[in-house]
Structure formats: structure tokens, C-alpha cells
Amino acid sequence: MKRRxxxxxxxxxxxxxxxxxxxxxxxxxxxxxxxLQLLCAPATCTVVGALDGTLGHVFLVTSPLDLTxxxxxxxxxxxxxxxxxxxLLNLAPVGALNQLPTPLPAGLLSGRxxxxxxxxxxxxxxxxxxxxxxxxxxKVSQAQSQFGVKGIGIVxxxxxxxxxxxxALQGVLLPGYDFTRNQAGASExxxxxxxxxPVYPPPTCSSTSCPSPAKVNQSTAAVLDQSTAAVLDxxxxxxxxxxxxxxxxxxxxxxxxxxxxxxxxxxSDGTANLSDILRAIYYAVQNNxxxxxxxxxxxxxxxELKSALDYANQLNVICAASAGNDGQGPPLLVYPAALQSDxxxxxxxxxxxxxxxxxNYGNAIVWVAAPGEAIVTTYPFSTYSAGWGTSFSAxxxxxxxxxxxxxxxxxxxxxxxxxxxxxxxxxVPGMGNGRLDLLMALSALQPGGTSPDFGVSAAPSxxxxxxxxxxxxxxxxxxxxxxxxxxxxxxxxxPLAAMCTVSPPSVTLDGQNAATATVTLTTxxxxxxPPFALPRMAPPxxxxxxLVALCALLLVAVMFWNLSRTYHRRPGLATAAGLLAVLLCSxxxxxxxxxxxxxxPTLSSISLNPSSVNGGSSSTGTVTLxxxxxxxxxxxYLTSSASAATVPASVTVAAGAxxxxxxxxxxxxxxxxxxxxxxxxxxxxxxxxxxxxxGxxxPTLSSIALNPSSVNAGSSSTGTVTLxxxxxxxxxxxSLTSSASAATVPASVTVAAGAxxxxxxxxxxxxxxxxxxxxxxxxxxxxxxxxxTVTPVTPAGTFTLTITGTSGTLTHSSTVQVTVQ
Length: 821
Description:
The protein is α+β, with helices and mostly antiparallel strands. Strands 10-9-13-8-15-16-17-18 form an eight-stranded mixed β-sheet, sandwiched between helices. The longest helix is centred in the last third of the chain and has 20 residues, at 544-563.
């Protein structure tokens, strides 16, 4: 079990893994994805996947831990920015007030005559759909004909999906994505259990076999032409079935030539996770949507929902959302409608411009109102329905955004909202700027100029990363005046040792739709030195005089302590201090490494056998005392006068013994080389000589290699020295040097006896420019060299990237900020 969870965390950046239903679900923003994966690796949590598409900073994390424990764990995460609970939303909450009227309004079944829509096309739809009262109220047909617009761009709908086979929508419907199943396509028919139906798919019926509409979802819609649609009524699992198809139908009614992108984040029971809605928003923006419809609301605010919609706004995506169906006003806030800098919240009105009884109201959540009662629209199984609710008011505005973009392709949320604000004034308060009038909105929008051009925008506006990571941004080129040329991207302002790229490097505009690319800043990591550690055993670092002074001070302190009242309160501590003083004085005045106490043995002699050896062989040294070593043993220090003969730093004569042996290792030489070996103990020094001679047939230094030959400052490279043959029995000591202080090597490396090569580490330090270093190895009079380049790393700080789009003589730029930690 632990292994499976660890693997899920390790693959989080690549796969979207379905979390356990019982797990705590948290949305996490971090600047360090590896740190998040490492944190979750011990099976404390699972990184399910990224929520922000190519940006890679927002993740869904699940855990068997309770919420408090999981949040406390995440707070320790390197690069942790924030976390929030993954909320559960519901399109069809119990007690919603938008109940269908009883009986249903007369005439809903009339108007089944088929008409081409859009006009002069081969797509046939119900006449009552095209010519319904709501369309006339917001002046759909007048706006289309007077301004010659029928909608451009891509309008995304985050909803229950769509019936992909509906004949009214097929000509403009894109495949979309199903976030509830993590698969391409967004068919809401996949939510149905076919055995729930007497006949599947349900057959259509005529006006005589369906004398009255079938009411479904209890509070959402009436299906106008489906003989078995009533099977859905009363079934909780189908409480919101058809909702997405209905909303798409209203968008299509307003903007019949705009492309429709269905994003299925809600299940047919009306529920959705906030994490899937976030995924859908980022997906829409990064797949060139120009508008997003959100016919849902939530009562709890979400920082990540705000961040996602900020991202959409920065890339000129226009957003509209339902104001909700609770029939309540201030101080009620619902989201995303309350995020008015990013979203237009839409309330519902009747066909007489009265506020619908079910509609929420209040200028904090309502930007504009639109008809939301008995809206005739598309329904699954190629039929039609009538809907009540702010869910069907919002798509009038989303479709209107596609018409506005038809008139000005560089339009953004701010311009669209200002245009839509030119609306019909209502007598009732709390309905924002009034009731939507598409003719007034289009009239208020000033064209962006007659000369073909394009605009550039980038999002998010800023990002924070750690050196060694990458920051991703989305850059968009939006055509103005039908501009349809190729825009080539460039990026400037990258910090030292970082690279900024744009993919794809160019986009070709079609005169209507924006095109996006991904800007990636790749930085270079900084390496850290390991923590300094003292040797486990080392000779004292203080002269004897210092130790004596410390001893005297400590003894005085202990005497003062004994006379004070503290002694009576803390006798144990005073005793310990006294003992420490006695030990220190004993060490500094008589023991340790100083002059032996009276009667102690002295160093008598040092001898070497043999006194002449071939380079690479060894000699055995012996130190002798004048008498047996005391109970603590005697440490005799050793030195050598020549690098061709090396000795250990010291040798210990065991307690009771009079002598000890040590090894003199030698290296290959080209000429006879004398070396003096010295031994020191108790102030006495003795010496002996050894001669290192060239050995017959000794191997020579063949080469030195470095891997890699170029490293980031602070990183290391591995060096390899190679001999022409096996090293002799004593091994071969190769001397090493470096030509630059930015690259350091050990003084030597030993090729073991019988081996032909040995490796060593080249450590590097910070540089501001690429710095070459020559690493040299010397053995037996021969020297070999290899080159290493030390490259700088990305420094900490805040940097401004300028992303520029160029097409012929036209150039436009946008900037983003990156903070490198």
C-alpha cells in the first residue's frame, strides 16, 4: 500500500490519479513541485495532479490525515504558498426556489416547425427556439443583422457536458473534455444508466403522443418533446442531467457561428469538485477560449478560484456567471459572480422585466440581468426543453461576448463589461446595470480601428520559483480588424544563467480568434555546501597556555559558586562544574599531548626497513620509547620531508609497550628521491631516511578526464586519472592541481595497487561569467591535463520578462515578473 502511494506521488507531474473518496482533499499552491512530491512520498499524502495546466503550481493533494494534520504538514513544505479545502458544489441544491410553474405556460409545445439556424444554413431547429420571446427581449436578431455579427471565437461552458449528437449544435461543437472521468470528450450521456429507461435511447414523440411537457429535475426544466423524459424526474442521480446541453443551446441561440467548448466538471447529479472547476478554467484559457460561461454558484469564497479567473482576465477572456437561485439579496454573496473585476454576474428576469422570484439580487453579485423564465433551448436526445433559472440567463451574456468580439477582436473583460452595462433600466433594485440589450451593448462598443493589427497579453502577471525550477506563462495574440498574419514570438529580460523560450515560436491568426503560446523561463539551480562537521577525534586546537588560563578561571568560578546561594539550590550542577575544572586542569597541566610527567618514557629512536624502495612500494617504520608507555598510551607524531614518501600523522604506542610500527607509502619517481621521516614525542624528535628509487617497468600517467566538462557553479565534476598499466603493490599517488580558484581538487588521488585508474571530485564555487579551469595530474614526472568550464547560476531577485510579438512592421509586447528565490 505504501509503495503504491509513493509511486502516485512520484508520478504526480505526469499522471492524474483518482483519489480515494474518503481522503481529505486540499488544493495546494507551491513554488517547489519536487518538494511537494517528496513531502507526500512517505504515504502521508498523494499528489493527484496539477490543476493549472501548463503552469504547474496548483495541485490537488489527498491524504488519509484529517484536515488540520494535513494543513500543518503542508505548512512545513519548501515553497508552500497556500492551501484550501476542495469544495463540493451542487447545481441542484435541495430547496432551490426556481420551481416550474403549474400548469406550465401555454404554447410551449407550439412552434415545432423547423427553421434554418443560422439563417441560410443547413442546420434545422425548432422555430420556437429561434423566435422565442426571450430572444426578442434582448434583441438577438436585431443585433446580428444591424452589426453583421453572428459570433466568433470559442465560448467554453463549465457544466454537466453536452449531448454531442444534437443536430442544432453539431456544426459548432468542439470535443471538449470530461474532468469527472479525465478523458477527452464531454458527453453528458455517459452519466446515464441505460437500464433506467424503458427504451434507450428514448424515442421522440409527436404533439398528439406528448400532449403536455414532461417535467424533469423538479426545479430546472421541462422537456418539450421526449416521451420517456419523465423517467429522470425524482431520481437524485439525474437531478442536473441535461443542464449543460440546455446552457449550450442558449449560447448558440445568441452567437450561432461561435465555436462551443463543453467542459464537463459537473456530474449528472449536479455535484462538482472545486478542483475540477479550476482545471476547466485553466483548460479553457490554454485552449484559446475567448469567453467562459459558468452557470453555477458557490457560497464560500475561494482564493484559487479568484487566481484562476484573474489568469483568464489577464488573457482577455470574458467571463459570465449565474447570480444564483436562492431568491435572496444583500448581504448574500455568491461566487464567482461576486468577483466583479473578472466576471459579470447575471440575474434572472421575467418576460415583463420583473425580477424572477427565484433570482438572487444585489449589485455586489449582479452586473446585469437577462431573461431566465421558460427559456426554450436544446436538450439531450436531439430534443428541446424549457428552463427556469439564472443558469439560463448567464449564457445570454456569454453568447453576447462572442458578438462583441465579432465587432472588436481585441476586446477584454473590462471593455465587454462596460458595453454590457449599457442596458435597459429596471424598476426593481439590485439588478446591476439593468436588463441586457445586445443592440445597446454593441452600439456602445467602439471599434478597435480600421487597420488590421493584433494585441498581446500574458498571464499570470507574476510567478515565484526557486533557482533550478521553471516558470510558465501563457502569451496570447488577439487579432484586430481581421488581422490574419503570422506573429513571431521573442522573450527578453531573462536573468543570468536562465533561458526564456516561447513554444510554439510563432502563431498564425485567423482574423477572429486569439492564439496562445507558452513562455517558459528555465533557471539554473544553486548547489549548497554540506554542513560543516568537526572530526570525531582531533587533537586540541588550543595552546597549553590558553588551557591553563581557562583552568584557573574555571576553578575561581567554581569557588565563587560554592560560596554563593546558588550552590545550595543547584549542588549537582556545582559538582559537575568542579569535576570539569579538575579534568581540564589535569589535562592541561599534566596529561594530553604535552611534556611527559616525570618518570615517563621518552622517544628513543625511529628506524625504516627497508631504507630504499622502488616508487610505489612501501617501507615499514618503527618508533621506540625508552620504556613502556603509560596507561593512556603514547601518541608519536610523524612527518615526511618529501611528497614521494607519505606517512600517517601519528602512530600510537600502546599502553605497556615500548614500540609501534607504521607504513611509509611511496609514489613513482623518475629519479632517486631522498625523504626524511621525523618522529616527535614529549618534546624529543628522531629522524630516519628513506630513498625512493624509480621502479623497473613502472606504469606512467596515461590520461585525465572530467565528467561533465561543464558544470553549474556550486556543482561538481568527477575526474578520472588513468595509468598505462596496473599500479604497483604500494599504489600510485597522483598529484592534482587546478588553474582556477573556482574549481578545487584534492592534493592527490591514489590509484590502488593493481588498478589502472582512480576518481576524484572537482568542487566549484560561484562565478559571474563562464570560467575555464585546467585540472592537471602529475605522476612519475609526467603531467596530463583536462579542461573544465564553470558556468554561473541564476541569482536570486525579481526580474521582468518582456514577451514580444512581431509581424512585419507591427510589434507589440507584454511583461511578466518572475521572482527567483
